[in-house]
Amino acid sequence: MEKQIIETLGSLHTHAIDARNGYQEALKDAEGHGLTNLFTDMIALHTRNGDELAAALMSAGGKVEDDGSFMSVVHKTIMDIRSLFGGLGASVIPGLIDGETRNMKAYDKAIADDPLPDHTQALLTTQKARLASAIVAMRAQIV
């Protein structure tokens, strides 16, 4: 069971790091225009989630990897290309919503598939709610 919990927390931690890295690239490319506030908020959200997951992962006996996965490179590349050709305005929001929806599905899977201790279940439920709130805020920005 501990191995499953470590794998689950490690996977979610990697998702948070990858998302944070993508938003950091977007913020850099936005150069203070467009969706700068959204990118800053999402960096903070994913940093918080990542930090909490790292603490839970270490508490469960797992190893924390702060570099993310290959998806960090993918997210950064997508943001660079979007910035180059179309800017990082409201047109990127649907793609961001799709990405955060995939993140929420990872939480759904983790919550449903693994027998988690109550405190871990509560953490994942709280983090999923943060993502849901962020999606609602993003949808409100679509014109």
- Note the total helix count: 5
What does the radius of gyration come to? Answer: 15 Å
Q: What is the molecular shape?
A: elongated
Give the helices and strands as they follow along the chain.
HHHHH
Percentage of residues in helical conformation: over 70%
Total strands: the figure is 0
CATH superfamily: Ferritin, core subunit, four-helix bundle
- So what's the oligomer here? single chain
Largest sheet: none
Give the uncertain stretches in residue-range form: 72-76, 80-85
Which CATH top level class fits? Answer: Mainly Alpha
Could you explain how this protein is built, in words?
It is built from five helices and no strands. It is elongated. The protein has 143 residues and is mostly helical. The chain has one domain: Ferritin (Up-down Bundle). Helix 2 packs antiparallel against helix 5.
Strands, helices and their partners?
Elements: H1 2-30, H2 36-59, H3 70-85, H4 93-113, H5 118-141
Q: What descriptors fit this protein?
A:
mainly alpha; 143 residues; elongated; Ferritin
Describe the structure concisely for a colleague.
80% of the residues lie in helices and 0% in strands.
